[in-house]
């Protein structure tokens, strides 16, 4: 392994360790010694890569931002329609928030006011949602009369809400939650011809995961209707 490869690996290990520390302790209480020890290096090695804690946090946010952009671009390249790309990207984002500490910490650092200089990942997400809705409108797959900015705001509000709620209860980041949202919204967004072609569970999901998400939402919906019937009878 070359010196440059070792440096790259060390930097990535520090970013990942920092994400875990920021997530556990918050930015203000995070200590550089915890970040360096989590990466298995000395604080001197940390300072070789980053000037201070703010620079480490900036790297975490930048890594999360780049991951969001790369993910969205890759999904769009393999997806036939912009609306399906929007659904698939939202599912991929929730999957990252479930399993990737860098994505979780990146959103918290950039959106919670702990560091004013950080870019806002929710605004980046909003921009991407609006781009896909604009593309759907241009392709004629968006239903007539849909206000794209309102649709983008609703999508971002729900997904950002899931992100915040998911910090304390991972169920909010589960596939069936997002599938339920898309089952509610897609009939309003898509044209009649486009709607049957869209999968609210996401085309990137494994068949078993998609079936589970759809079945879980159906069970929750049935339970809700039963409870409502019992209350009104």
UniProtKB/TrEMBL annotation:
Alphabetical keyword list: DNA-binding, Transcription, Transcription regulation
For the keyword Transcription regulation, the answer is: yes
Pfam families (UniProt xref)? TetR_N (PF00440)
Regions recorded as binding DNA: 31-50
Tell me the leader sequence span. Answer: none
Q: Where is the HTH tetR-type domain?
A: 8-68
| InterPro entries given in the database record | ArpA-like, Homeodomain-like_sf, HTH-type_TetR-like_transc_reg, HTH_TetR, Tet_transcr_reg_TetR-rel_C_sf
Q: Which Gene3D superfamilies match?
A: Tetracycline Repressor, domain 2 (1.10.357.10)
Keyword DNA-binding appears in the UniProt entry:
yes
| NCBIfam families linked to this entry | ScbR_bind_reg (NF041196)
**Name recorded for this polypeptide:** TetR family transcriptional regulator
Species this chain originates from: Streptomyces badius
